[in-house]
């Protein structure tokens, strides 16, 4: 990376922000390393000492508990671990790294653990390797303590920060309450990964693709983040800041102009409607938009509601969650997507097996069908909430008609038992399929007769159509929603749905791009569903064109043979839409 303080990365989520930086780990395997200024070295060694003490106390607590329940013999290991932590040579090594290399305590401890592993695993013999794990275990505990204490301390301060992390994951986005986060910068992360989806939905400026960034950072250092251009600037000068503030002002003015479209219905200039629904990830999203400014919730990502907790929500808790959303929407439909966990959407309290290829593994509907009791609870809660307002169900990762049949059987069973128990539920609860797996796309002409609506999950559809992992930074450049294959897939969905007389929408993140939304209208989609703060921009974009113009754009785009041409066509439209903003 060049040594300029201004660094170019990949823009993930638009917006401008500046403030003090805080480096976090999220759930990336690497330990974050940052620079500790010489004056902060004693404080850093103090952080290490505090973490060592608290890890030692925790070990002693566990020793006593195990001794009481299983006897002294079983508890011995905890005493051994405490002794390992008291070894002065290991401690000296860590302190030396902090003082001389001026790295943070986490990084210094991480290096010690790595060294244990390297030296001992190089030796032969299973028992020696077991020993390597034993000596590093207590230090791993110190590392976890450091990271957790850091989070708690940050949480208890009131400071707003820019988060920096090795990789953009959902956990990084949820590291702090959202009102405390100004922006996020990460060394790596996919543009359509779930972390990216969350950052956008939270409206947090975000830039990734900044290899080696963390090693240039100091905790608390000031930084500006330009999520529009994908630029970050370390320690900006007063002139840099003045220029940045000027752009912030311009952006706010444009946003106010576009905001005028928020209360208007989403219509093209000729009056044609494209419904604008919203994607909801958290109940915290609800106060940030007016239900009357939307056409309902097009995607309630229920797994994120589950992620905000420390155990599976009970039926009653889920019922209350869904009912709150349904009541909040005041008569507008709410589309509850059934649990879509797996791959990078892991629940801390629900361990799925380690998989070699998680995106192709145990995910979404596959888990629900294998473990029907999980989905039964969710369906019961959703059906009960349907008594309070219009509700629809959306099935993720549908790959075949059999899966829909199986799900229908579970659904019918749940409904019958609720009725028997005297619960009130809506008579008619539309069930839709997400189209995000190529087999569902190619058999859509068969599937469509068995569902009430479809919604395209472009985030996944692109990854599966193009065989490009949405979470893998190495292939991020190949992840291309404008690939002609993707556009022809979208055309197919619109066409098959239209012929069957079923509603179709797109709820993947690409729909939040106003030029793309125009394209989707031209293709014949009925709705787009995006994070709430994109709605005014989309309405504004639609208001600038007629359906006939959108169809003309579609013809040009479908005739393009390369995504480069598609990109240029959309760029021209985007330029046209934004230059006329605020006229
Ligand atoms: C999608 O895949 O486009 C989608 C909307 O679902 P998720 O991003 O949660 O996988
Ligand atoms: Mg998906």
Describe the structure.
With 583 residues, this protein is α/β, with parallel strands linked by helices. Helix content is 49%, strand content 14%. The protein contains 21 helices and 16 strands. The longest helix has 31 residues, at 126-156. The chain is globular, with a radius of gyration of 26 Å. The two termini are 41 Å apart. The mean pLDDT is 90. The chain binds phosphoenolpyruvate (PEP) and magnesium ion.
The main β sheet shows up as: 8 strands, mixed
How far from one another are the termini? Answer: 41 Å
Q: Give the spatial strand order of the biggest sheet.
A: 1-8-7-3-4-5-6-2
User: Helical segment tally?
Assistant: 21
Task: Kindly state the number of beta strands.
Answer: 16
Mean pLDDT score, rounded? 90
> Radius of gyration from the CA trace?
26 Å
Structural class: alpha/beta
- What molecules are bound to this protein? phosphoenolpyruvate, magnesium ion
Spans of at least 5 consecutive residues whose pLDDT stays below 50 are none
The share of residues in helices is: 40-55%
User: Which descriptor suits the 3D outline?
Assistant: globular
Strand content: 5-15%
């Amino acid at each position: 990376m060049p040594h300029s303080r201004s660094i170019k990365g990949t823009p993930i989520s638009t917006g401008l922000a500046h403030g003090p930086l805080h480096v976090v780990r999220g759930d990336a395997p690497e330990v974050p390393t940052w620079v500790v200024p010489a004056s902060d070295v004693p404080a850093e060694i103090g952080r290490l000492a505090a973490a060592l003490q608290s890890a030692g106390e925790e070990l002693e607590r566990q020793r006593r508990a195990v001794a009481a329940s299983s006897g002294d013999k079983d508890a011995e290991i905890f005493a051994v671990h405490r002794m390992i932590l008291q070894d002065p040579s290991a401690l000296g090594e860590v302190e030396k790294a902090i003082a001389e290399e001026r790295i943070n305590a986490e990084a210094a401890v991480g290096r010690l653990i790595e060294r244990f592993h390297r030296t001992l695993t190089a030796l032969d013999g299973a028992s020696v390797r077991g020993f390597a794990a034993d000596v590093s275990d207590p230090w791993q505990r110190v590392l976890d303590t450091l990271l957790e204490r850091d989070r708690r301390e940050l949480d208890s301060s009131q400071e707003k920060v820019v988060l920096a992390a090795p990789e953009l994951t959902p956990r990084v986005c949820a590291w702090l309450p959202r009102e405390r986060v100004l922006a996020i910068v990460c060394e790596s992360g996919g543009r359509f990964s779930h972390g990216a989806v969350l950052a956008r939905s939270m409206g947090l400026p975000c830039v990734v693709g900044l290899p080696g960034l963390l090693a240039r950072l100091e905790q608390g250092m000031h930084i500006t983040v330009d999520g529009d251009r994908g630029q970050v600037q370390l320690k900006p000068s007063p002139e840099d800041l003045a220029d940045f503030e000027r752009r912030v002002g311009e952006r706010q003015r444009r946003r106010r102009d576009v905001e005028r479209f928020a209360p208007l219905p989403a219509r093209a200039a000729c009056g044609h409607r494209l419904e604008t629904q919203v994607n909801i990830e958290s109940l915290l999203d609800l106060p940030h938009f007016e239900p009357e400014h939307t056409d309902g919730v097009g995607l309630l990502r229920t797994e994120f509601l589950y992620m905000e907790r420390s155990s599976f929500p009970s039926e009653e808790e889920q019922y209350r969650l869904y009912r709150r959303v349904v009541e909040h929407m005041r008569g507008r439909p709410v589309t509850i997507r059934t649990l879509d966990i797996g791959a990078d959407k892991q629940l801390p309290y629900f361990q799925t097996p380690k998989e070699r290829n998680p995106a192709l593994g145990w995910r979404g509907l596959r888990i629900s069908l294998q473990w029907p009791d999980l989905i039964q609870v969710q369906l019961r809660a959703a059906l009960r909430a349907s008594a309070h307002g219009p509700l629809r169900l959306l099935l993720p990762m549908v790959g075949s008609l059999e899966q829909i049949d199986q799900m229908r059987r579970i659904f019918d069973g749940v409904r019958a038992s609720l009725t028997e128990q005297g619960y009130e539920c809506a008579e008619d609860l539309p069930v839709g399929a997400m189209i995000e797996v190529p087999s569902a796309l190619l058999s859509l002409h068969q599937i469509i007769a068995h569902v009430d609506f479809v919604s395209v999950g472009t985030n996944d559809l692109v990854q599966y159509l193009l065989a490009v992992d949405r979470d893998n930074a190495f292939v991020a450049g190949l992840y291309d929603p404008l690939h002609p294959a993707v556009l022809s897939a979208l055309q197919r969905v619109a066409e098959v749905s239209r012929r069957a007389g079923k509603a179709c929408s797109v709820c993947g993140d690409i729909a939040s791009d106003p030029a793309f939304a125009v394209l989707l209208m031209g293709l014949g989609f009925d709705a787009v569903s995006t994070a709430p703060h994109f709605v005014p921009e989309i309405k504004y974009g639609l208001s600038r064109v007629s359906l006939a113009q959108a169809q003309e754009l579609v013809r040009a785009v479908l005739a393009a043979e390369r995504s480069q041409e598609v990109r240029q066509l959309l760029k021209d439209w985007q330029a046209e839409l934004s230059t006329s903003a605020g006229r």
